[in-house]
Design a protein that fits this description.
Helix content is 40%, strand content 27%. The protein is an alpha/beta fold and 143 residues long. The longest helix is centred in the last third of the chain and has 19 residues. The protein has a domain of 80 residues: Vaccinia Virus protein VP39 (Rossmann fold).
Length: 143
Amino acid sequence: MMAEAISLYGGKITTIELDEKVAEQAKKNFERAGVKDQIQVKIGDARTIITDMNEEFDLIFQDVGDKTLYDAMFDDYVRLLKPGGILLAEDALFPVFDFHFEYSYLADMRGSLDAFNKRVANCLSFESTLLPIGDGLMVAVKK
């Protein structure tokens, strides 16, 4: 687990959860695993929380159900990552297969992910690659 590994170096994890019940369960899980002191749980809308953050991070791991947030929060990722910091974006190729039914939100997510992937690839602040593993993983290192 990441929290166990970073505890050896005095690191901290900040996680953001929109749903208060899910956040409370996560806190219980962290306590049971003995890593609660390494993890700060923030509850609320990630867009608002990240916009107000000023600390720098070594790693940002993005994995959220609403994939339209990836592109919407990109500028904050650039701002918050330290030089040499890593951006990991899970499901960067989602959906990996073509949907032929009326779920317009899937088209919105696909368009947003495409825009996000292109922004990362073309951003002069990053060296990046898109790994076609599972639903895709964007890996970017800040210069």
